[in-house]
Specification:
single chain; alpha/beta; 6-stranded mixed beta sheet
């Protein structure tokens, strides 16, 4: 399976331009033979949170239909971050997954909102409380994560318990914490014995420079591909997902996990 990580420069608040840029990159991914392409967190709106309601409406009325059109036209699956209506009212920082063969849009709501200056996400978004896995390329069962979720090993381990062979984390991760981005992606691969796909944005959010370096790691932590710090399309020809399950059988650490004692630590 060929995976395309679209490392997009997100222009905060400029939803029309961001949608046009993403559409061009999706077409490029299709031309390079990708069957799945991934876009960063909040690629449509950036962190223009004050206008989350109008951006959410644009996402539902314009962006999702356009993504579905592209998915059907090019025969590929699309996953990416959008401001969307939350399940119980309000709005969510969401990852949507569009399969051209299904009318359903699968949606994951970011579980861990980033409540640090200058982005106090809980002032604008409702946190999700469930994990969502999707089938990439009809072969990789991938657990979805968004940015700050990556810092919480429990999220990744929960997907491992669901027998996911991959984790897909979309982000707007800053360059100042790029070492954490790369290290945590690799750590999640090693501890869950899963493929890890990390799709980050580039550009800036005010004075904050986004870090790029979208990456793919094998289940043993081996780096398979990495982008730089500018807008780009990272195309990766992935090994068979059975690689993850073979590693788990040969080094089966999961049964030795002592879940009963962890809550007391």
């Amino acid at each position: 399976m060929k995976l395309g990580l679209i490392q997009l420069e997100c222009l905060p608040g400029n939803v029309e331009q961001n949608l046009e840029n993403a559409s061009l990159r999706i077409q490029e991914a299709a031309e390079q033979g990708c069957s799945v392409c991934v876009l960063p967190e909040l690629w449509l709106s950036g962190y223009d949170l004050i206008r989350v309601q109008s951006h959410s409406e644009f996402a539902c009325k314009e962006a999702v239909p356009e993504l579905r059109r592209l998915a059907i036209e090019f025969g590929l699956e699309i996953c990416g971050g959008l401001p969307m209506p939350a399940e119980n009212g309000g709005f969510s920082n969401a990852a949507v997954f569009i399969d051209p063969q299904s009318p359903q849009v699968q949606t994951y709501q970011k579980n861990h909102l980033f409540d640090f200056t200058p982005f106090n996400e809980s002032d604008y978004f409702i946190a999700g409380d469930r994990r969502v896995s999707v089938l990439f390329g009809k072969s990789f069962l991938a657990g979805l994560m968004i940015c700050f979720d990556l810092r919480f090993a429990e999220v990744a381990l929960g997907y491992r318990a669901m027998n996911c062979s991959a984790l897909c984390c979309i982000a707007q991760w800053p360059a100042a914490r790029r070492m954490a981005w790369r290290t945590l992606l690799q750590a999640r691969a090693i501890e869950t014995q899963s493929f890890v796909f990390g799709c980050n944005a580039v550009g800036s959010l005010g004075d904050i420079i986004l870090g790029g370096f979208s990456s793919v790691f094998a289940p043993d932590g081996t780096p398979l591909a990495e982008a730089g710090d500018s807008e780009s399309l990272l195309v990766v020809d992935l090994p068979d997902p059975e690689t993850a399950h073979e590693l788990r059988r040969s080094l089966d650490v999961w049964p030795q996990s002592r879940q009963g004692i962890y809550q007391s630590l």
